[in-house]
Amino acid sequence: MSKILIVEDEESIAELERDYLKISGFDVEICNNGDEGLLKALKEDYDLLVLDIMLPGADGFEICKRVREEKDIPVIVVSARKDDIDKIRALGLGADDYMTKPFSPSELVARVRAHMSRFNRLTGVGKQANDVIEIRGLKIDRTARKVWVEGEEKTFTAKEFDLLTFLAMHPNHVYSKADLFREIWGMESLGDDVATVTVHIKKIREKLDDTTADPDYIETIWGVGYRFK
Ligand code: CA
Questions:
Q1: Are 175 and 183 contacting, i.e. CB atoms less than 8 angstroms apart?
Q2: Nearest Cα to Cα of residue 146 among 219, 207, 229, 223
Q3: Are 97 and 115 in contact (CB under 8 A)?
Q4: What spacing in Å lies between the alpha carbon of 149 and ligand 1's midpoint?
Q5: Using omega within 30 degrees of 0 as the cis cutoff, is the peptide bond preceding 102 cis?
Q6: 54 alpha carbon – ligand 1 mean position (Å)
Q7: What is the pLDDT of residue 125?
Q8: Which of 48, 79, 135, 199 has a 20 to 30 Å separation from 94 between CA atoms?
Q9: Ligand 1: distance of its center to the CA of 122 in Å?
């Protein structure tokens, strides 16, 4: 079971976060003090950290910075401060995400899941032989996160890779842009976000040398979405 450490001095918030994460299947510990939180985060093996910024003892920035020097686990910073500068600072110190309080606990759960699965994919948890998909001249190594088209390696961004791999693993299945957004970005689409999917599909097609008119891989199903051949 994945283990999460919450460092948060407001007990009611910490407990609410813990309860939601627990019913979602995570093992959760709470620390109400920054110095203790830092020690625990460094010493024990957690799969993800949720850090408040304003804490007694070391603050969330300090913890994030110190943890980052030794570990690459996902870190989500939560804060009551709405300043963009805090967000920029947290992300600059290596946090993976920043959330402003108050937020809905289910939003936190969604982000925790997204960061964890992304991290697990990146580090190839459960190592066996590399997991490779090969379809008509396209080769996707899911373990190494590499793609070759007709033997030539192509560079994909993380989201392009995730999107291509998801479609390739579900051939002959039509997905709407909203489906793909939810699947790959780990959150519900708010409408405009589907344009993000369109842009990524376009980039993927360019790299695959795929055309809309006569596609080898990704077909556009007009008015519905996309289908991998
Ligand atoms: Ca606080």
A1: yes
A2: 207
A3: yes
A4: 50
A5: yes
A6: 4
A7: 58
A8: 199
A9: 31
DSSP-derived secondary structure letter, 15: H
Task: Give residue 216's Cα distance to chain centre.
Answer: 29
For the chain, the maximum distance between any two Cα atoms, rounded to a whole number of angstroms, is 61
CB 141 within 8 A of CB 132: yes
Count of residues in the chain:
229
What span, in angstroms and rounded, lies between the C-alpha atoms of 199 and 88? 25
* β pairing state of 225-228 and 218-221: antiparallel
- Centre of ligand 1 to C-alpha 56, Å, is 8
Residue-level pLDDT at 67? 95
On the CB side of 12, CA atoms within 13 Å amount to 2
Residue 111 has phi, psi (to 5 degrees) of: -70, -40
* Residues whose CB falls within 8 Å of the CB of residue 34, separated by 6 or more in sequence, listed in order: 7, 9, 55, 56, 57, 58, 59, 60, 62, 63
The segments of the chain whose pLDDT lies below 70 read: 124-129
- CA gap 182, 180 in Å, rounded: 5
